[in-house]
Each structure stands twice: as C-alpha cells, then as structure tokens.
Specification:
Radius of gyration: 20 Å
Largest sheet: 6 strands, parallel
Order of helices and strands: HEHEHHEHEHEEEEEHHHHHHHHH
Strand order of the largest sheet: 1-9-6-4-2-3
Helix content: 40-55%
Strand content: 5-15%
Length: 401
C-alpha cells in the first residue's frame, strides 16, 4: 500500500477512535426468556408485529411457542420465513411489503445473524421509505429511528443482537455491503439458550468461530477501549472453554448460555472497535459465492492472523493467555503462534475444513477490490493491505491452492 494511502487510513481511524467516547453507542435491554416478549409488547401497546426468520428455523418450529403466545395475547403476528443465509435485497423488499400489508408496528428477528440483518434492513426501509438499500450502505446513512426491533438469536455467533451493523447481499451485482448506524442496534435482545438447542453441530461450530473472529479482530485492532478489550478477552475465554461442549452436547445448558454470552460480548466489542480483513474477505466471498459467513471467517482467521506478523504479536499473545494456550512468561512471538495454532486445532476438532470450494481465479481481483473498499480506511487493522495484497488470502483458502 502506498504511503499516502496508509496516512489517510490511519488518519481516519485515529479520528474515529477519538470520537468513540462521544458517539451514541447503546446496548439493547436484555431479556432472558422468550416469554418475556409478551409483556414487553403489551407495555408498549404494540398490537401487530412482523417476525423475520429463515426456512430452517421456521421448519423446526423454534418460533412456534412465541407465535402461540402472541396469538393468546391477541397480538397479530405476520411471519416472513424466507430469509437466505446471506440475506438479499429481495428478502428485505419482500419482508417490508409484508410489514406494510399487515400494518405491523414492530419487528422481531428470530434466528441467526441473517434474520437480524434482514429485519434491520426492513427497519431502515421503514425509516426511509423513498430510499433504496444501496443508498443507505456505509456509515451513518440511517439516522432516523427505526421501528422497535427485538432480536432473538438462535445461534451463538454473529452478536447481531448487540451491533449497529446489517450486512445485505445484492445478488445481481454479487456483492455484499454493510450498513452501520446506531439506530440499527436492536432495542431488545433475548438471550434464551433454549432456542439454540436444535442448532446442528456444524452450525454450532461455524457460528461459534464467527463469534471468536469478532472478539479477535476487535481486540487486535487499533480502535480498542479498556471496555472492548476486557469484553473481547472474556469472550475468547468463554468460547475456548465452551464451544466444544456445545458442539458435542447440544442441550448442555451451561455451555449454550456461555456461548450466547460470549457472542453478545463480542458483538458489543466489535461494534465499537470494528473488525478487520478476515471479515472484509469473508463478506466478498459471501457476496460472490454465497459462502456461509461463519465458515469463511473460521477458515480465514488463522491465515490472516499469521500474515500480520509482529504487528499483532503482543495482542495475540494476550489472547493466547485468555484462551489457555500460552503462558504470560512466553515471548510475544511464541504466544502469538500458540494462539494461531490453537485456532487451527480448534477448527480441526470442530470439523471445519482448511479450504473453501468454488473459488475461481478470475473472480479474485474483483473480490479483493470489494474487500479493500470495505476495509480501508475504516477497519483499524494491525497491518494495512491493498487489494493486490488481499488477493493472497483467496488463493490460500481455495481448494485448488
């Protein structure tokens, strides 16, 4: 990367770091049981809601008890259950149309990060009915308050119940983009481990590694605060202590509760400290090939961390200590390598592959440009890279490499 570009990136990142204490960050009010949604809606005098979910969650009947409770309380509930794993502009448009048709007053996102992103997109469209989603991408384009949003995560991964980010895919352009606005932070989050019990093991693994990636990238970046560092370290500790139990024993309540807590803390941390090149590259893969986000993050994480070298060694050493993979007395370089190795070993034990299928060499330059445009200048990564340098990561994770 050219020196002038590096100066620009670091200048923007420094300005945002100075602004963190005065920006209107907030956290959702946390409920611990799905049943608590009913009295909340009654108190708010909300008579009609749109529940946004995905086909798998809906087919398994996970939202059914809440839908029944809403019916008993005479609160009308329209259900949009077609959210894709990487939610599209079409998903948002369809859900918005249903919201308007049924005269809804609030949104309930019931599922993983995709359902929450779709619901956030609907909220943004309700706040700005004459704007397209593409005109609201980027930072601080949704300043008006969206309808009340209640997030009920069925995965312990994205932390979207705590974040100001929505990631939407334009399927025609084969491109993912983010919306980052304080108004998109859900008003309420329901951390009820019971709704995570039926999550298949492979999704427990990849969404858990998604949460780990959030914590790691938030911690090693240059825009951390004392609180975000503490949250990230605690999240990493909880994930290393509990993800394998949740993976092997899906109905282990303590492990599931710990993973939900870890994902939430990671969400709070990265909302303030941002993420890095792992996410930027993963988003471009999701936009181009519909690669599941958690899987892409898991495969990319050790590769990108190793590329940072000495620029991230001290912080990776601290993460290794939190994960129980290294001792404080070790050198930073040894601690960093121990953490990267611990991530690789964890991926292997969770059945996560080392490569991703379907990457075509001719697509790499375009994806790398999208990733560089997303990350630079905002993401405060330890080591700045341009699009040409980012191309290396796609080749390293391709199954033909």
């Amino acid at each position: 990367m050219l020196l002038s570009a590096k100066i620009l990136c670091r200048g923007v990142q420094f300005a945002f770091r100075l602004a963190i204490p005065v920006l209107p960050y907030r956290e959702p009010v946390i409920l611990h049981r799905v049943e608590d949604v009913i009295p909340l809606l009654q108190k708010k005098q909300i008579a009609s809601v749109l529940l946004v979910t995905d086909p798998g969650v809906f087919r398994q009947g996970i939202p059914a008890p809440l839908i029944a409770l809403l019916e008993q309380a005479r609160i009308r509930c329209a259900v949009y259950s077609q959210t894709c794993p990487n939610p599209t502009t079409d998903n948002v448009a369809e859900a918005k149309a249903l919201y308007l048709e049924k005269g809804c007053q609030a949104l309930i996102a019931f599922g993983g990060g995709s359902s929450m992103d779709c619901a956030k997109g609907v909220g943004a469209c309700m706040a700005y009915p004459r704007k397209t989603l593409s005109r609201m991408k980027g930072l601080l384009k949704v300043l008006r308050r969206i309808p009340p949003l209640i997030a009920i995560p069925t995965t312990a991964g994205t932390g979207s119940e705590a974040t100001l980010t929505a990631v939407i895919t334009d399927r025609k352009a084969k491109h993912k983009y983010t919306m980052n606005d304080f108004t998109l932070i859900p008003r309420y989050g329901v951390l009820d481990s019971r709704v995570t019990y039926t999550l298949p093991p492979h999704l427990t693994a990849t969404t858990g590694m998604d949460a780990l990636t959030h914590s790691v990238e938030a911690y090693i970046g240059g825009s951390t605060t004392k609180r975000t560092r503490a949250l990230a370290l605690r999240s990493v500790k909880l994930i290393f202590e509990n993800i394998e139990t949740a993976y092997a024993l899906p109905e282990n309540a303590p492990a599931r509760e710990a993973m939900l807590k870890a994902a939430y803390m990671a969400g709070v941390a990265f909302s303030r400290s941002y993420v890095g090149y792992v996410h930027a590259v993963a988003h471009s893969l999701g936009g181009q090939y519909n690669t599941p986000h958690g899987l892409a993050n898991a495969v990319l994480l050790p590769i990108v961390l190793r590329s940072y070298g000495a620029s991230a060694a001290k912080k990776l050493h601290a993460l290794a200590v939190a994960a129980g993979a290294a001792e404080e007395a070790q050198s930073h370089e040894a601690g960093a390598e121990a953490f990267i190795q611990a991530v690789e070993d964890l991926n292997r034990r969770l059945g996560i592959p080392r490569t991703l299928p379907g990457i075509r060499p001719q697509d790499i330059p375009k994806m790398a440009k999208h990733a560089a445009r997303e990350a630079n200048p905002l993401y405060p990564v330890p080591k700045l890279m341009n699009a040409r340098e980012l191309e290396t990561f796609y080749r390293q994770v391709a199954d033909w490499s």
